[in-house]
Amino acid sequence: MERVLCPLDIGLEHLEQIERLPYLQGRQGVSAEIADVIDEVLASKRSTSFVKVDRTRLGDSWEAWVYVLIGSPGEADLVVGDQVEAAAEASAGTYFGPLQGFGHVRGVLTWENSD
What gap in Å lies between CA 75 and CA 73, rounded to an integer? Predict the structure, then answer.
């Protein structure tokens, strides 16, 4: 098993938007509505547009600990039937960043928590 700590810079404004969401205090689980907002924030930045909340792990996620799916940077996900396939995005340009070279993997999005 391989693990990597990889800081993502989404900017202070976007980070604060994620931090201010109405998480259940002291309780496990993240709502689909919170996941939608996190996905929107991540999608708004080229450096994180390939990171999405793992909808199968919403019940396992917590405030400041959200399970995510990480696609290959520079690729778009195509839904073909019930399967997701990666397709190269010719117009996206080349991505150089901290998540380069890992392919499609699972991860955990974390941030500082006051609790």
Answer: 6
